[in-house]
Structures are given as structure tokens and as C-alpha cells.
Amino acid sequence: MRQIIALGGGGFSMEPDNPLLDLYILKQVKKSKPQICFIPTASGDSDNYISKFYNFFNQLNCTPSHLSLFNPPTRDLESFILEKDIIYVGGGNTKNLLALWKEWGLDDILRKAWNQGVILAGLSAGSICWFEEGVTDSFGDGLEPIQCLGFLKGSNCPHYDSELERKPAYHNLIESKKIQSGIATDDGVAIHYKEHEISKIVSSRPNAKAYSVSFEQEVIESELQTVFLGSY
């Protein structure tokens, strides 16, 4: 089964004392010690980001690794990726992520991994990238639409509650038909897709939500059922 878990924000880098979303991701693998690989391309392979990943996941029952395109572990990236159970993509600059992935052929490798049952996950840029389109600040001047990989239909807008300009920008882009309808996610929310359908929406924060946003004469924002995973 093909699975993608798209986080609007949260996880080990944003909520280091709240492991609920990352534990949820790990639990989707029916193995006692899943292999989870972090791809920090969007952050330019930030050393601090990579350290946070290892510091967090080394404490859990899994085998963490990471893939750098600036210092590749092997020429055979496909074999490296396909042996993993979970691919976890970090946040940062979505445009740079997509450009580098395409240059290295990683977009095709990740599609193959997805088709073979490797769980794809990520937050912010690591969420946007799986959809047809996303809302990004990668261009450095406001929020704009960006064409992404298209594993999932529609558009995606992360950080819906934490960045004040996100909601009006997403509404305006949909209303002006510069971006297609899609899903917006607050920080602390993960949307779990099985195949192309939403299977479950979970949150690490009691009031964090996900929304369907579309346009029919006016912008329609509909709150989606979200399951809170626990408490701090």
C-alpha cells in the first residue's frame, strides 16, 4: 500500500518535547525496529537540523539515517532509499529541494519507493513536495504557488495557523485560480494518505486542525475531522 504522511508543522524539529506525530509515523511500520531516513535537502543539509533528527530518533526504537545530496553516502541512491521503511523530508526551501531532487533523479526514486510501500513523510516543504502544487515562500518575496511532484492531487498549504499571512494568501491564490483547491494544515497536524485518499488526520496539539479549501463563487473552508493523539 502506498502511504504519505504530510505534516503542516511539528515533529522533532518544532516540538522536541512532544513526540506524538513522530511516534505515529513510526507506528505505521509493522516492524520492531523500522529504518527511517531523513532527507534535509530543503535546509541545505543544515548540520543543526540533522543533529536534531539523530538526537530525537536515536532515543526511539528505530534505525535512523540521513541522505545528503551534498555529500552522498553512495552512488547508488536508489538502493539506499529502497531499503528504508520511512523517508522523512525536512522543511526549508521547496524550490531548491525540487531542483536538486530532479537533478539527482531522486524524484523518480522516491516515486518508486512510494509504489513499493516505503512510507513517505515530511513537514512544511517536506509536505508540500508530494502534492501537485503548494504555497511556498521559497522565492523570497511573499507567498506564491509552486508546482510539485504530484504524487497527491490538489494543493497543500502548511503552517496555516502559525504564519498569519498563510490563510489569506492561500484563499487569494485559490480564488484567483492561481492554485487549485486543496488541503491546509495547522502546525501539529499530520494528514495520513493511503493511496490517494485521506485515511486519517491526527494532531499533536488539542486545537490543531486541517481544512479543505476550495472555490465555488466564494472561498469555502471546511474543517476536517482531526484526532488528537494525546497530551503533552
What does this structure look like?
This protein is of the alpha/beta class and 232 residues long. It has one domain: Class I glutamine amidotransferase (GATase) domain (Rossmann fold). It has helices spanning 11-14, 20-27, 47-57, 77-82, 94-104, 106-115, 125-128, 166-175; strands at residues 3-7, 35-39, 63-66, 86-89, 119-123, 131-136, 144-147, 152-157, 182-185, 189-194, 197-203, 210-216, 218-224, 227-228. An 8-stranded mixed β-sheet has the order 3-2-4-5-1-10-11-14, with helices on both faces. Strands 7-6-8-9-12-13 form a 6-stranded mixed β-sheet.
Task: Give the integer mean of the pLDDT values.
Answer: 95
The name of the CATH superfamily reads Class I glutamine amidotransferase (GATase) domain
Low-pLDDT stretches: none
Helix count from the secondary structure assignment = 8
Please report the total strand number as a whole number: 14
The domain count comes to 1
The portion of residues assigned to helices is 25-40%
**Secondary structural class:** alpha/beta
The main sheet orders its strands as: 3-2-4-5-1-10-11-14
Q: The CATH topology, please?
A: Rossmann fold
